[in-house]
Amino acid sequence: xxxxxxxxVLAGASLGAxxxxxxxxxxxxxxxxAVSQTPLPGKLSDFGFFADQVRQIPAPxxxxxxxxxPLYSDGAxxxxxxxxxxxxxxxxxxxxxxxxxxxxxxxKTFAFGEGVNxxxxxxxxxxxxxxxxxxxxxxxxxxxxxATLAIAGGRVNLTTPDGxxxxxxxxxxxxxxxxxGLGGEVIPIGPKARNLSQEWLxxxxxxxxxxxxxxxxxxxxxxxxxxxxxxxxxxxAYLDVNCAHCHxxxxxxxxxxxxxxxxxxxxxxxxxxxxxxxxGRGSGGLLFDIIPGKPGESILVHRMNSLEPGVxxxxxxxxxxxxxxxxxxxxxxxxxxxx
Amino acid sequence: xxxxxxxxxxxxxxxxxxxxxxxxxVIVSAGEGAQTRxxxxxxxxxxxxxxxxxxxxxxxxxxxxxxxDGVTVRGAGMDGxxxxxxxxxxxxxxxxxxxxxxxLRDFALENPKGDGIKSKGADDIVYHRVRVTxxxxxxxxxxxxxxxxxxxTNVLIDGVKVSGASDAGIxxxxxxxxxxxxxIAEANVAGIEIENSRDALVENNIATRNTGGILVFDLPNLPxxxxxxxxxxxxxxVDNDTANFAPPGNIVASVRRGTGILxxxxxxxxxxxxxxxxxxxxxxxxxxxxxxxxxxxYNPFARNVVVGxxxxxxxxxxxxxxxxxxxxSAFGGALPxxxxxxxxxxxxxxxxxxxxxxxxLNLATPGxxxxxxxxxxxxxxxxxxxxxxxxxxxxxxxxxxxxS
Lengths: 339, 404
Prior knowledge:
Chain A is an alpha+beta fold. In chain A, 23% of the residues lie in helices and 19% in strands. Chain A has seven helices and twelve strands. In chain A, the strands form four sheets. Chain A has a six-stranded antiparallel β-sheet, with helices on one face. In chain A, helix 5 (231-243) packs across helix 7 (323-335). Chain A is globular, with a radius of gyration of 23 Å. Residues 1-22 of chain A have low confidence and may be disordered. By secondary structure, chain B is mainly beta. Chain B has four helices and 32 strands. Chain B has helices at 2-17, 34-44, 324-330, 400-403; strands spanning 25-28, 50-53, 56-59, 62-66, 72-74, 81-84, 90-97, 103-110, 115-120, 125-133, 145-150, 153-158, 161-163, 168-173, 176-181, 184-186, 190-195, 198-203, 206-208, 212-217, 228-233, 236-238, 259-264, 267-272, 275-277, 282-287, 303-307, 311-312, 338-340, 351-352, 358-360, 376-377. Chain B starts with a helix and ends with a helix. Mean pLDDT of chain B is 93; it is low at 1-18. At the A-B interface, helix 3 of A face helix 2, strand 4, strand 7 and strand 11 of B.
């Protein structure tokens, strides 16, 4: 009897040890079936994007990255990752979006709070499947142990870094497409060569994850260095990243005729001296999107400065004003000369 | 009789269900969690499915959206099922549709913070017996558009009712093959607006108590240009006398209170068999675009506009125009029904049927100061421009979706 019990205990102990050691000794690869095929994976952990999901430590072939100028989301800290399946790599396409292979995924976790107080709120995944990109939102539970699919989105009460108590909006699956849609397809927005650092691109290429380092003549400035950057560069980078996924031809706000992409240089298309089309009461009684030298009379600034649905821009994912964003756009317009 | 109805119903259902093997009804009721349950139903629907909204008031905190082709959203009547957006916190409209072949019918939206229902790039869409109401009446703080299809081909709007929009009640923009009919637009800034669109039929509607009843025009600097080929017929355009409550800056903010039908910068518009009464500025106004613009593709002229036979009642008796008093007294107490700015591109100017009277500002160029005009009775040729009624309106195949 005794040896047998001992044996069982021993087996249990070794199993436990193996389970504990597993993530360190032999990290699990990402679940390619979940990324490419499972229609709607129910849990974030189904993908296996993380060696330690709670601490957001990525699994093998999942690479963290940052954007020079990021999208503002109520002050959320964002943890961005790119997954490339074994044997694949990304391809450079000039200064624009990296071309990612089928089977790749982009993962973005939204967090509030610092250090031990950090709370993960949601993780959005963008999966490159054979029939195109699929966007899915996952909402973290209160216990911070797992994030589950929230196709209808939701609301979470939280406090922003500025101390504002807000009802934070997790977008629904369709709303993902409102920003990520172009010409009826879902596409990534963030990882454009011009908004990624030279060092990151070089490392990706050196690791065999990128075919070559794209040459970028016109790189977007680092957001935290906007104070010393040219106001036009900083503001135009901000508008590209925060607005141009909708305000460009073929996207959600194409019918406005406003095109805020970094590469656009037509003054009318950028809103300078452009009258509103479908702004409705969003115009706030102002006549033009942008009047050079007059941020206070420019509809663009007025709508950035509003939280009221129907007036507020962006329309989605905004429960607080981005004071820094407003400030740089105001500075740009103030310093702008009449064309 | 019952048997016959059943047979028709089955045949229609089979047709409607053709794209999907197992089209189903997904029933959603009002009450706790309506936002999530309804949005989930809209996302999980398969082509051919019907999302059935039960009678009741759905209290919604966020904009809804539908992105699945061939889905029907059906309520229990425009007074039975109410999507209440009074507490809306997010999104630019109440319901956004971005897929093709969608049918929206028999429900209402109340007090959306932005637009009511926007369908963008959503071809073959039917709006049937849908109501959008801002319940506080005409207020500048109301949303802009009630029913708002844009950048779409084949749009059928039948039996809808919109009131309180601070821009246009029924607004069709940058689209083609459009029918708006049997609908009521009341107490909006613009009742019905066809903008940068082609091949539109607007018939059998009531436009009343708006600032302007029915507007057809083109604006510059938009992705889709070249609006025209529009027929406005058999509409009741009466008592459009609400003071303009649009926020300045928008094109409709310049619409004069008391405008019945306005045509601006468009090519080929027929106005026929309408009843127009008590529109104090003008029953019909035909003008060029007046603002400066930079857009090579844009044509600011009103071209080939034909005013046929219409029943004109009292109107033009309190025009919101500079020098109104003098004008009204010069014309003997009321301006005649058709007002023209006189601006023409070559031989494509306004023509009117025999017996139609009007007056012209006799301006020469778009944007010319009206004060420099030479107002005089309208003297224009009889119509020779011909319209093909079969070239306007949504395709006939879409009719079946009203009865299925």
